[in-house]
Amino acid sequence: MIRGERILIVGSGRSASELADIPPGIKLFTCNAGIRFFDGKAMDRPLDLFFCNKAKLQREKEIELLLVKIRTRVFVSRNTDGIRENTALRGSYERLLYDDSTDPWYLTRLIRPQGVQDIQGRCEATWTSTGMRLLQYALYFGAREVYVVGMDFGENGYFWGPKPNPWGHPDIDENFIRIVSAKYRNVFSISSKSPLSHHLPVKRPA
């Protein structure tokens, strides 16, 4: 599903609003409230991968409704038992995979011998945000090109409005991106206004 493919990862940051249309011939990955980006878009297929944690699904009921509407080929979560038992979600996904999002297996293999630390270097860090976990999947499984939008380290709120957007892993995520930008030449920021563009080249998928 990933090797040799072009992947578009959509987060919920403000820069996602710069992407008006979904480029053809590209795999679609998103997580948590990022699914809102696809609501109302002209789509003739489901998402390719959706990652949502249990707390988000319980707290933001709109996510569940959108998943039923938009659908996904692969649903990744640490709450696989609860999702299987949720009759409302039946038919909204083809495969259900477990990931607790904290296991550093993908991350360490992508960036070794380097390690990700918090910005003060206080401790070895392994738990990036869910959006950065999607980037780990894309790189580890051999995507040809990866385009990222809407992952703005919590700056300027969400693409649907300037609400506060507290980012749980700002320094860890940014340090991970720094290492990725030095090691991989196939990862791009779609937005020149996103903080990602400080580290990644800006390119839109053709």
Describe this structure as you would to a colleague.
With 206 residues, this protein is α/β, with parallel strands linked by helices. The chain has a single domain, classed as sialyltransferase cstii, chain A (Alpha-Beta Complex), CATH 3.90.1480. Helices cover 26% and strands 17% of the residues. It has helices at residues 54-59, 61-70, 80-85, 105-111, 130-140, 170-183, and strands spanning 6-10, 27-31, 47-51, 72-77, 93-98, 145-149, 187-189. It has a 7-stranded parallel beta sheet, sandwiched between helices. Helix 4 crosses helix 5 (130-140). The longest helix has 14 residues, at 170-183.
Topology:
Elements: E1 6-10, E2 27-31, E3 47-51, H1 54-59, H2 61-70, E4 72-77, H3 80-85, E5 93-98, H4 105-111, H5 130-140, E6 145-149, H6 170-183, E7 187-189
Parallel strand pairs: 1-2, 1-6, 2-3, 3-4, 4-5, 6-7
The CATH class designation is Alpha Beta
User: How many strand segments?
Assistant: 7
Radius of gyration: 16 Å
Number of structurally distinct domains: 1
If helices are DSSP runs of H or I spanning 4 or more residues, what is the number of helices?
6
Specify the overall morphology: globular
Structural class comes to alpha/beta
State the CATH architecture. Answer: Alpha-Beta Complex
Helix content: 25-40%
Please give the order of strands in the largest beta sheet: 5-4-3-2-1-6-7
Low-confidence spans: none
Q: How much of the polypeptide forms β-strand, as a percent range? A: 15-25%
| CATH topology group | sialyltransferase cstii, chain A
